[in-house]
Amino acid sequence: MWSFSHIANELHEWLSSIFNPTWTLVIEMVLAGVAVIGLFAGLGLVLVLMERRVAAWIQIRLGPNRVGPQGLLQSLADTLKLIVKEGLTPNGADKLLFNIAPFIAMIVAMLLMAPIAFAKDFQLWDMNIGVLYVSAVSSIMVISILMAGWSSNNKYSLMGAMRSGAQIVSYELSAGLSILTIVVLTGSLQISDIIHSQATGWWIFKGHLPVWIAFVTFIIAVTAETNRAPFDLAEAESELTAGFHTEYSGMKFALFFLAEYINVFIVCAIGATLFLGGWMPFHIGNLTDFNRVMDYIPSSIWFFGKTFFMIFLIMWFRWTFPRLRIDQLLNLEWKYLLPISMINLLLATAMAILGWHF
Amino acid sequence: MFIIKYIKEVYRGVKSLLVGMKRTLYYFTHHKEIITQEYPDNRDTLVMAERFKGEVVMPHNEKNEHRCTGCQACELACPNGTIKVIFKNELTPEGKKKKAIDKLVYHLELCTMCNLCVEACPSDAIKMAQTFEHSVYDRSELTKILNNPGSKIMDGVE
User: Mean pLDDT of all residues in chain A?
Assistant: First the structure.
């Protein structure tokens, strides 16, 4: 049977037969790194094109349709343009911080790839605190944004970075609380445990009302955390030119741009894992025939399908809702999302103790 | 009570967001609503809006006659000096001198398509055309002479 875990095991056995265990580990790490970078590049191309198409269709336009068949090569051409452009560093900028900020953004995105389960038994690192690791590492993102904004020596950049700091720090709370809802129901922080707990049904169906509320808060909070419209105050192209990456150009800008899309992918993957069952196929109770048909669909397709559904939701938000002002943004978090998700966590805890879920 | 007001606010907010999302989902799934066109490809079938104004032209009939009397109403009406009327003296068959236009010079590069000249014209000699592909390599090509060479005024237009 063809599957990702099968290929990984074959590769591991083949490498073990040639090298000693240490070298096997080193080579596997390098291969995983290359695979992650390849995935980043592929995702960047696909998501940029998808965003532009979704935006165009929502705004009753056609979207990119000139480069290649149906405009499929558009993002490739854009990448080529960004590669050949000059990566300028302004004279007044802090050279070191200015130049490493985009790489920190990328490193954070790479670190977040570690605990994600892409297919059945196919995961880089199944640590026992997976969910905690994700929410801890994703907050390092704000450091790269602050670093970029502050070192640019530009008032727009600094304002964008400061706003983004306020925004990410506050929305982390409700994102964390909505993740906790699932952790409470599962009783484990390990990603594989969370996925296996959904073998009988995804949490969004099993957990009814509290999980629905948690899902809505989660998706709002992660939209804010990835700095996407309607919460794009860090970028704010209408008031701060481009916010924290005003001074960036060429490939350094492209890295920030890529990091935004990678982060969207990661938070959507986490959301799909927690609420929609990760790579778990869709099962309905005792309909064994139906369940068997669903099992035939490869687990990686389930995972990517759910993730891209979540990505579509976030893109749909971006092109529907008007932007928030900074005070409205903080109001939404501290007056609405946080109290609601706190009460919701209590509800979910009661539900988990009393066994009210399916 | 405070808590009821709070819940109502949340309900209203969520509802209005869902209404917006329903609208955009409709547009996302209904591609026949798309209003942009693939312009250079559909050049042959392109239909312009009725009110679109592209440039000022002077229609001529098949005998190479126009309706312009040279009254200068358009030149006076133009807010930014786009139209210049240059005269010549013509001899009528009776041997009388008659004023007629030699050239009606039109500067497309200055024109704002305000339509005031067309409205000012007492004899409907000029009108707005719907052409729009006006780009040229030299801006002197934008200075146009509206009357055809050798044209004369239509009979019966005073």
Answer: 84
Query: Quick one: B11 and B79 in the same domain?
Result: no
B69 and B141 fall within a common domain: yes
Q: What is the pTM of this model?
A: 0.81
Helix (H, G, I), strand (E, B) or coil at B100: strand
How many other C-beta atoms are found inside a 10 Å radius of the C-beta of residue A101? 27
Question: Does the ipTM exceed 0.90?
Answer: no
Number of domains present in the structure of chain B: 2
Mean pLDDT to the nearest integer, B29-47? 83
Nearest CB to B33; choose among A60, A336, A340 = A60
Nearest CB to A61; choose among B10, B20, B36: B36
- The DSSP letter of residue A69 is G
Closest CA of chain B from A309, distance in Å: 14
Q: Find the CATH number of the domain harbouring B107.
A: 3.30.70.3270
Determine the residue among A60, A213, A332, A342 to mutate to test chain B binding: the one whose Cβ has the most chain B Cβ atoms within 10 Å. Answer: A60
Give the residue with greater pLDDT, B80 vs A203: B80
| Cβ-proximal residues to B17 (8 Å cutoff; 6+ apart), any chain | A320, A321
Q: Which residues of chain A have pLDDT under 50?
A: none
Would you say residue B40 lies in a domain? no
Residue pair B68/B125 in contact by the 8 Å Cβ criterion:
yes
Q: What's the pLDDT tens digit per position in A216-231?
A: 889 888 888 888 878 8
Residues B35, A60: C-beta atoms closer than 8 Å: yes
The answer to whether A61 contacts B17, with C-beta atoms less than 8 Å apart, is no
Domain borders along chain A are 88-354
Q: Which residues on chain B are in Cβ contact (under 8 Å) with A61?
A: 34-36
First-to-last alpha carbon distance for chain A, in angstroms, is 33
Distance to chain A for B54, nearest Cα, Å: 24
A181 and A214 Cβ atoms separated by less than 8 Å: yes
Distance from CA of B77 to the nearest CA of A (A): 39
Residue B85 lies in a domain: yes
Q: What is the pLDDT of residue B137?
A: 92
Burial of A99 (C-beta count, 10 Å sphere; 0-12/13-18/19+): middle
Q: Which domain holds residue B81?
A: 55-153
Domain co-membership, B100 together with B149: yes
